[in-house]
Amino acid sequence: MDLTPSQNMKAFPAMLSSIALSYYHSSHLAEINNEDAV
Fold it and tell me: Which superkingdom, per the lineage (predicted)?
């Protein structure tokens, strides 16, 4: 499935669970853009 970069950044947290999801939010990874994430 091909996703645009913005769709990918929206879908990524949905693939995480429990501790990984907590880390994603607590480390402010949700606030960075796709170019900085890769």
Answer: Eukaryota
**Residue pointed to by tokens 């645009």:** 4
pTM: predicted TM-score of the whole model, two decimal places: 0.47
Q: Show contacts of 27-33: CB within 8 Å, 24+ apart.
A: 33/9
Q: Are 20 and 12 in contact (CB under 8 A)?
A: no
The sign of the dihedral angle between the CA atoms of 2, 19, 25, 38 is negative
Average pLDDT of the chain to the nearest whole number: 77
CA 38/CA 14 separation, integer angstroms? 18
Reduce the DSSP state of residue 17 to 3 states and report it: coil
